[in-house]
Write a structure and sequence with these properties.
The complex is a heterotrimer of chains A (about 240), B (about 290) and C (about 350). Chain A has nine helices and ten strands. Chain A is of the alpha/beta class and about 240 residues long. Chain A has a single domain, classed as P-loop containing nucleotide triphosphate hydrolases (Rossmann fold, 3-Layer(aba) Sandwich). In chain A, helix 3 packs parallel to helix 6 and helix 6 runs parallel beside helix 7. Chain A starts with 5 loop residues before the first strand and ends with a helix. Chain B has about 290 residues and is an all-alpha fold. Chain C is globular. Chain C has a two-stranded antiparallel ribbon with strand order 1-4. In chain C, helix 5 packs antiparallel against helix 11 and helix 13 crosses helix 14. Classes of the chains: A alpha/beta (about 240), B mainly alpha (about 290), C mainly alpha (about 350).
């Protein structure tokens, strides 16, 4: 097996007075899509925030291409090619749609993602490019958030609850766009409430329960009952 | 006639106050910081101009080429090392640290330059004027101040809407955490905003030095005038600061017409009047 | 045996401190018999600043209303005293008490206007208000206009006929005001309203949702602080016997120094301003010959404390030893029920 692209090793993290993650370990390989599942409060978002440097952790807990990157500031991690599509979309409200995309790419890595490619992926955004980002519908805002992360040309993209609060038809549209992102060789970690949808998209999964890994592997190797138990706990 | 003249002079004076206000408004907009030492920065700019003019024998407006970058550099460093650590906690830390800075700058200037009031000569431009008929004379210097204020506001607008730095300012102001994910180092962005503010402050300091006598204790009053212009104009609105400056300037010159003792007082009273009648200022920002 | 719980506020240290404070207070009351004239003057000044620092801390440290314009009320107190005594022949000590009402009457309509400004802009707004007072009193020629005036001799002798007696009375008044202010603040903070105040400081939104009326609590506190600050101002200028707009409404004397004391001592505690006031006077008595350098030093120390030890010296001491002299929080204490 090749060396992993991103190794998460005994990672513990959390907030000032509250530890949310305990000794989490797993690998993400090049080109792999990994679903991170778990109940509310299991620590999924905390893990993504820690990976991108918004929450601190010890250097050796995160290893990217052989370099210890734990605790690096967020701007340095983004420059290494790890991008986050944050929960709740969080577009810059005083920037237009196009400006939101531009700012995503300005300081990122060089690569094939450009305004044109994002517009090709989400054609509706081309029409709305000059509009304030706040004037868009939830689904369109989610497209901008995904496009903004892609503009940095990441090799790892982290999706945090991209279907939250969206209508089913819109969710389908957005998920339809994901394969054309990962098919370019980009690795992905996907946090998603809808476990069936997440496992359908990913080649492997990690289930968190109360801040610890409760189950991991390939979706096909585990029964539905195992996954449910790992998800909710076995009491 | 006196009234008309006072109004015209007040409008031009408003340009200077808009310069005081623009820097204050800029840093508040980007990082919600209110620099209590803002007025002392302006006076620091005036003293820096004095030193450059005296040692190099330059015209004060040529001296701007040295004073503006120096002030910007000084403020960049200050923001990086002293003010950034105070941000994001509570209101108290930035307020009290800049208050302490104000005391340090005032007393530092007192130590170096004594309490004597100073003035910088600009080779006659300070007394030159043009007649626009009807017995009205416009000073060249006040005209230059007003034009500079407009140029500064246009420049800021250009930076904010058209440049990468401006996008970074707006993005960081909107959501500092997500801005980091755009590979923006917000410590640098904040320091750039402070440096830009200090560049404007330096321009204001140069005009102040040429226009009137100054001494180390005159800073706080400049902070207050800038602040009044910001609030009268409406928080977060660049053109509002010019409008606020003009309202304040006209109130002061009209007050002075009644009695010289009423000049500053009239400005304060108009400020309170606006605060009572239109608490969000004359040109409130639409997005709050 | 089942453990039970009781709720206590006093601590061991606070009981010992209480006993020691009583001894100290008796000694200070007796100061006219053991301290010289200069020291009594100094102590009088210390008491006034003790009151000002505690009041500023009450406002900033417990409600988050940071004012850099409390000199408005100090000066107002001074001028209220002079005006009442000179124009209406009010006995000076009575005028000090009455000035408190003047302060409250002015603060009541002023507060809603200033409250329209948020955070640091509120702070500068209070400063503008103080400037309005300064410029207005400079226009009152009956009180000496811009150059100010002295309290006429006949009014001064009204307090007591001999200088010694007069200074004793003023000294005790200052002591009473200083201690009374601290006691009043302690009482306010221990009351239900005080609990609400602390809640506001910790989270406005949360306390609002719990039914704390923030607007009213802030208003009441602002007005009470203004009244007590005005009384302190009146007493300060009764000690000085001379007033001018620049001295009365000085931002440096009545706000900058006061902020320094609170920040150094520790904001948000009752002990902090007391410790800070003592340190300030210690520094002033030993270093003020340095002039402007001394003031720069004060500014630098304040910045350093704010950055490195935002809870001040008392906060450092208190968290290292667990000692509080004025316990505000209730502690759950376990005991064994027989």
């Amino acid at each position: 097996m090749n060396a992993p692209l991103l190794r998460i090793e005994n990672l513990s993290s959390g907030y000032a007075d509250f530890q949310a993650l305990f000794d989490v370990s797993f690998d993400l390989h090049a080109g792999e899509a990994l679903a991170l599942i778990g109940a509310n409060g299991a620590g999924k978002s905390t893990l993504l925030k820690t990976i991108v440097g918004l929450l601190p952790c010890a250097p050796q807990m995160l290893v990217h291409r052989g370099d210890k990157i734990g605790g690096l500031s967020a701007d340095k991690i983004v420059r290494r090619g790890i991008a986050l599509v944050p929960e709740g979309r969080r577009l810059f409200r005083s920037l237009s749609v196009e400006e939101n995309l531009i700012i995503g790419g300005e300081r990122g890595r060089a690569g094939e993602w450009s305004l044109e490619r994002v517009y090709a992926l989400f054609p509706i955004l081309r029409e709305k490019r000059q509009q304030p980002s706040t004037s868009l519908s939830g689904g369109q805002q989610q497209m901008v958030a995904i496009g903004r992360a892609l503009m940095a040309n990441p090799e790892i993209i982290l999706f945090d609850e991209i279907s939250l609060g969206l209508a089913p038809a819109i969710i389908k549209d957005i998920y339809a766009a994901l394969p054309s992102i990962t098919s370019t060789g980009v690795s992905a970690i996907l946090v998603e409430q809808d476990v069936t949808r997440a496992l359908g998209f990913a080649q492997s999964f990690v289930c968190l329960q109360e801040g610890r890994v409760s189950l991991a592997g390939k979706p096909a190797d585990h029964s539905r009952a195992d996954i449910v138990a790992a998800y909710f706990g076995s009491h | 006639m006196d009234w008309l003249n006072a109004i015209v002079q007040g409008v031009l004076l408003g340009g200077l106050y808009a310069l005081f206000a623009a820097g204050l408004s800029l840093i508040f907009g980007v990082m919600r910081l209110v620099n209590i030492a803002h007025g002392d920065f302006i006076v620091l700019g005036s003293y820096l101009t004095l030193v450059v003019v005296q040692t190099l024998g330059l015209n004060p407006f040529v001296a701007a080429l040295i004073v503006v970058p120096l002030m910007a550099l000084f403020s960049y460093v200050l923001q990086r090392f002293l003010l950034n650590p105070t941000l994001g906690k509570d209101l108290l830390a930035p307020l009290l640290v800049t208050f302490g800075l104000s005391i340090i700058i005032q007393n530092g200037l007192l130590t170096l330059f004594t309490a004597d009031s100073r003035r910088v000569m600009a080779g006659g431009i300070e007394t030159a004027s043009v007649s626009i008929g009807g017995g009205l004379n416009l000073g060249v210097l006040p005209l230059a101040m007003f034009a500079t204020a407009i140029a500064v506001i246009l420049g800021l607008e250009f930076i904010f809407t058209r440049t990468s730095l401006g996008r970074a300012f707006r993005a960081t102001s909107d959501d500092a955490e997500i801005a980091k994910l755009m590979a923006l180092d917000n410590r640098h962005i904040y320091a750039m905003a402070m440096a830009l503010s200090a560049g404007i402050v330096a321009l204001a300091g140069i005009f102040l030095a040429v226009r009137t006598n100054f001494d180390p204790s005159t800073g706080p009053m400049r902070l207050i005038f800038g602040f009044e212009a910001v609030i009268i104009g409406g928080l977060g609105s660049l053109w509002g600061t010019l409008a606020g400056g003009i309202v304040l300037g006209v109130a002061q010159t009209l007050g002075a017409l009644i009695d010289p003792g009423y000049q500053v007082l009239a400005g304060h009273l108009v400020f309170f009047l606006i605060l009572i009648l239109r608490p969000r200022g004359l040109f409130p920002r639409m997005d709050g | 045996m089942k453990p039970g719980y009781t709720i206590e506020r006093a601590t061991h240290a606070s009981r010992i401190a209480g006993a020691l404070s009583l001894v100290a207070i008796v000694a200070l009351i007796a100061a006219p018999w053991w301290a010289g004239r200069a020291n009594m003057r100094l102590l009088g000044e210390v008491y006034a600043f003790l009151a000002l620092a505690s009041l500023w801390n009450l406002l900033a440290g417990f409600t988050g209303l940071v004012s850099v314009g409390q000199q408005a009320f100090v000066g107002l107190g001074g001028y209220a005293l002079f005006a009442a005594a000179i124009f209406y022949g009010v006995p000076p000590l009575l005028a000090v008490v009455l000035s408190g009402f003047v302060g409250a009457l002015i603060a009541l309509p002023l507060a809603p206007i200033l409250f329209r400004l948020q955070g640091a802009y509120f702070a500068i707004g209070t400063w503008v208000a103080a400037e309005v007072f300064r410029l207005t009193f400079a226009q009152v020629s009956a009180l000496g206009g811009g150059s100010g005036t002295s309290l006429p001799a006949r009014i001064v002798t009204d307090i007591a006929s001999t200088r010694d007696a007069r200074e004793m009375i003023v000294y005790w008044s200052a002591l009473a005001l200083g201690l009374g202010t601290i006691a009043a603040i302690y009482a306010i903070l221990r009351s239900r309203a005080g609990l609400a105040l602390t809640a506001i400081r910790d989270s406005e939104i949360a306390s609002e949702s719990l039914g704390v009326n923030i607007a009213r609590s802030k208003l009441v506190l602002y007005v009470v602080t203004a009244a007590l600050t005005t009384m302190t101002g009146a007493l300060i200028f009764l000690q000085k016997l001379r007033i001018s707009p620049d001295a009365a409404f000085s931002v440096n004397d009545w706000t900058a120094y006061v902020i320094f004391m609170v920040v150094i001592g520790g904001i948000g505690t009752i002990e902090g301003p007391i410790v800070g006031t003592l340190i300030f006077f210690l520094l002033r008595e030993t270093l003020s010959d340095l002039g402007t350098i001394y003031l720069m030093l004060l500014g630098a120390v304040a910045i350093l404390v704010m950055l490195k030890a935002p809870k001040g010296l008392w906060g450092l001491f208190s968290s290292a030893t667990g000692i509080t002299l004025f316990p505000l929080r209730r502690r759950v204490v376990q005991f064994d029920a027989k």
